[in-house]
Amino acid sequence: MIALIQRVKSAQVDVDGETIGKISQGLLVLLGVAKDDDKAKADKLVQRISNYRIFSDEDGRMNLSLKQIEGELLVVSQFTLVADTKKGTRPGFSRGAPAALGEQLYDYFVEQCKDTGIPTQTGQFGADMQVSLLNDGPVTFNLEV
Predict the structure, then answer these.
(1) What is the full DSSP assignment across 3-53?
(2) Which is the catalytic residue, given 6, 12, 55, 79?
(3) Is 80 tagged catalytic?
(4) Which end of the chain has less Cβ packing within 10 Å, N or C?
(5) Gap between the Cα atoms of 52 and 27, Å rounded
(6) Each residue of 51-95: pLDDT tens digit?
(7) Secondary structure of 99-138 as H, E, C letters
C-alpha cells in the first residue's frame, strides 16, 4: 500500500463538475493499493499518516502531526501509484489490486482514518476525478507499508 501525502492549506476533489470532498489545512492522501495488500497494512499506514510529524511547530520545525494540529484528511484513490515504471515508456499495472480488492481496502482505509477522529473527506473510487490543492511548503512524502 502506497500513500503519497501532501501537506496542504486546502484541497478538493470534483467529479462531473461537482465537489465531493473538500478540506482546509491538513493532508491530501493519494492512495494506491497493490494486490498483496491487506487490512493490516492499511492499519499501519493509517497510524503512520495520522502521527507523521510534518507540520511546523512554533520554531518552524516539522515536529507536529496531523492529530496535533487538528487538521483534516482528503483521501483519493490512485491506482497509478503502484504502477511498475522501472523500464520502458509505458507503465505496467500488474502490481495493482483487482478493482474489488482495491475498493474494499480503500473503503477500509477511509473508515480507519475516520475512527482516529480526524475529519476525513474522500474522492470516489474508480471515478475520473479532478483534484485541486494548495500545497503547503511544498511538502510531499511517499509512504509505503
Answers:
(1) EEEEEEEEEEEEETTEEEEEESSEEEEEEE-BTT--HHHHHHHHHHHHH--
(2) 79
(3) yes
(4) C
(5) 11
(6) 999 999 999 999 999 999 999 999 999 999 999 999 999 999 999
(7) HHHHHHHHHHHHHHHHHCCCCEEECCCCCCCEEEEEEEEE
Query: Residue 15 has which C-alpha cell?
Result: 467529479
Q: What is the pTM of this model?
A: 0.95
Query: Residue 107: what pLDDT?
Result: 98
Confidence bin at 31 (pLDDT 50/70/90): very high
Burial of 1 (0-12, 13-18, 19+ CB in 10 A): buried
Q: Is the CB of residue 97 less than 8 Å from the CB of residue 34?
A: yes
Q: Which three cell numbers stand for residue 56?
A: 511546523
Is residue 80 classed as helix, strand or coil in its secondary structure? helix
141 assigned to active site: no
Q: Which of 80, 85, 93, 130 is catalytic?
A: 80
Confidence band of 44 (pLDDT split at 50, 70, 90): very high
Paired residues of 130 in beta bridges: 14
Q: Residues 6, 78, 120, 122: which is the catalytic one?
A: 78
